[in-house]
């Protein structure tokens, strides 16, 4: 058709001039086109006011779909556009055409799509995260184990650190961060982490709770933790990009290699990270390592003392003013009886806190089982006075029975906490009501000889001495299961 190649603007101008009363020749002169072109466009009616042609048959199907209902169904959990296309699209309409039409008919909130690029100051922020690592193979059995990739990137210059670990446990998480900070040579003001359990005990969009042990580590090192919002990867774009680059490049480089240890895998990763940090960034025209040199002096210094790992537990105060931790007992001021205490366990000490976060007691951590750490000041004054009176009475009674009993009693009630074994000493002296002094003296002597100052042991030795004297007890007279518990007594 003549004039079919003219633009829409030219066609509209032709119709405007025609409605203004100009002839074909005048319109052609004004626009610089031929009269035949003007005639052809006016004859086609392809301009303002023309009669609309019906839509092609390929668009008719869209009017049959209840798009409001489709958009409502799409807000429900686990519902996909592909599923809705199978349910609502007419026969012959594929998923792509349905998706495009839905997108065209869905109003777009432009303001909600706007993102502000954050500008971070040097030394202000690091970002860290985990992802699935590369498997390692056992040389002997051939079994494979999957590792975890821990990575950190500077928000300012994208300088990277990464290593493989076997798990995302609290100890592994803190140890990896410790090595990372020494790699960077300093500390940022903020450290952004994902919501893994080793760092965040309860994830929340506005008020998350940090893991107490990790919070202690952050306080010791001197940085603040910023947990990212759940399901919001754009809160930590630097580390998301760093992990993506590592997966696309390093994972593909070593896809045909077999690693037999985490150390071997980390040696290979360390070479790649060094090469990556030294490669030129196209957007900046320099390397990450060069940009990091301007940030390094602005990082905070590392602490002189290494962090001592600790954990937190809860324990209730018993009526005897003690709490139980790992089958050992530690005293607490009596005013906290029946209350639940927060216990911080480190390698050497145990710190006990009240519900109001008040430090109420510190003890040296005990090894083994059923050991006591008691401070007399944790008992009421009247109880202490009564106990001290009982101790004096016990010492007099033990001296009356004999030197062995006096020695056992002195060992039990010695030290800075004489109340610790007060009840045991009372039980041993109470044997004098049923056994003669000679038997008690023998039982105490055996207890001191073998280092077993226990009530049951002294009772058994004294009872057997009282019944049999110095005659040996035949092993065949006892059942087999009790033979290991029989003590042979010989004439001194």
Report a brief summary of the structure.
By secondary structure, this protein is an alpha+beta fold. Helix content is 41%, strand content 16%.
**Which band does the percent of strand residues land in?**
15-25%
Major sheet details = 5 strands, mixed
Mean pLDDT: 84
| Count of DSSP H/I helices | 18
CATH class label of the largest domain: Alpha Beta
Give Rg in angstroms.
42 Å
Q: Specify the CATH homologous superfamily of the largest domain.
A: Ribonuclease H-like superfamily/Ribonuclease H
CATH architecture of the largest domain: 2-Layer Sandwich
- Shape annotation: elongated
> What structural class do the secondary elements suggest?
alpha+beta
The counted number of beta strands is: 16
**Tally of distinct domains:** 4
What strand order characterises the main sheet? 3-2-1-4-7
Distance between the termini: 133 Å
Describe the structure.
With 492 residues, the protein is an alpha+beta fold. It has four domains: 57-108; 125-298, Nucleotidyltransferase, domain 5; 311-378, no CATH class; 403-485, no CATH class. Helix content is 41%, strand content 16%. It has 18 helices and 16 strands. It has helices at residues 8-19, 24-31, 35-44, 57-60, 67-74, 81-88, 95-105, 110-113, 170-184, 212-221, 237-253, 262-278, 288-295, 381-401, 403-412, 422-430, 437-450, 455-468, and strands spanning 125-137, 144-154, 160-165, 190-193, 200-202, 209-210, 224-227, 280-281, 286-287, 311-316, 322-325, 328-331, 340-345, 349-353, 359-364, 372-373. The protein has a five-stranded mixed β-sheet, with helices on both faces. A four-stranded antiparallel β-sheet has the order 10-13-14-15, with no helix packed on it. Strands 11-12-16 form a three-stranded mixed β-sheet, with no helix packed on it. Helix 14 (381-401) runs parallel beside helix 16 (422-430). The protein is elongated. The relative contact order is 0.05.
């Amino acid at each position: 058709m003549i004039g079919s190649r003219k633009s829409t603007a030219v066609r509209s101008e032709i119709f405007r001039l025609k409605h203004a009363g100009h002839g074909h020749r005048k319109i052609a002169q004004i626009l610089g086109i031929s009269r035949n072109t003007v005639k052809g466009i006016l004859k086609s009616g392809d301009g303002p006011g023309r009669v609309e042609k019906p839509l092609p048959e390929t668009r008719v199907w869209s009017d049959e779909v209840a798009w409001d209902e489709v958009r409502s169904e799409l807000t429900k959990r686990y519902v996909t556009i592909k599923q809705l296309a199978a349910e609502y699209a007419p026969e012959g309409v594929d998923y792509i055409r349905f998706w495009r039409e839905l997108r065209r008919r869905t109003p777009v909130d432009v303001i909600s799509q706007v993102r502000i690029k954050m500008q971070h100051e040097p030394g202000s922020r690091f970002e860290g995260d985990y992802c699935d690592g590369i498997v390692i193979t056992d040389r002997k059995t051939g079994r494979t184990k999957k590792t975890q990739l821990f990575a950190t990137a500077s928000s300012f210059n994208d300088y990277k650190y990464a290593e493989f670990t076997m798990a995302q446990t609290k100890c592994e998480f803190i140890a990896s961060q410790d090595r990372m900070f020494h790699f960077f040579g300093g500390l940022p003001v903020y450290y952004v982490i994902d919501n893994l359990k080793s760092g965040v005990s309860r994830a929340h969009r506005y008020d998350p709770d940090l893991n107490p042990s990790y919070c202690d580590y952050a306080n010791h090192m001197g940085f603040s933790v910023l947990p990212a919002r759940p399901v919001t990867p754009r809160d930590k774009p630097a580390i998301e990009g760093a992990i993506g680059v590592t997966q696309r490049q390093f994972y593909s480089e070593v896809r045909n290699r077999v690693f037999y240890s985490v150390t071997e895998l980390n040696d290979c990763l360390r070479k790649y990270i060094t090469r990556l940090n030294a490669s030129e960034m196209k957007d900046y025209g320099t390397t990450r390592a060069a940009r990091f040199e301007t940030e390094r002096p602005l990082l905070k210094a590392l602490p002189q003392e290494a962090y001592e790992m600790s954990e937190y537990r809860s324990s209730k105060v018993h009526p005897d003013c003690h709490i139980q931790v790992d089958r050992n007992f530690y005293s607490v001021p009596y005013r906290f009886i029946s209350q639940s205490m927060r216990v911080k366990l480190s390698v050497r000490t145990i710190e006990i806190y009240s519900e109001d976060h008040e430090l109420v007691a510190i003890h040296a951590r005990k090894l083994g089982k059923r050991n006591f750490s008691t401070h007399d000041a944790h008992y009421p004054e009247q109880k202490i006075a009564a106990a001290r009176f009982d101790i004096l009475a016990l010492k007099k009674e033990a001296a009356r029975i004999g030197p062995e009993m006096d020695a056992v009693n002195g060992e039990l009630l010695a030290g800075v906490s004489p109340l610790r074994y007060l009840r045991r000493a009372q039980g041993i002296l109470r044997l004098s009501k049923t056994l003669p002094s000679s038997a008690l003296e023998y039982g105490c002597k055996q207890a001191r000889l073998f280092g077993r100052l226990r009530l049951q042991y002294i009772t058994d030795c004294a009872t057997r001495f009282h019944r049999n004297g110095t005659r040996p007890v035949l092993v065949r007279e006892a059942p087999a299961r009790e033979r290991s518990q029989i003590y042979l007594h010989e004439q001194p």
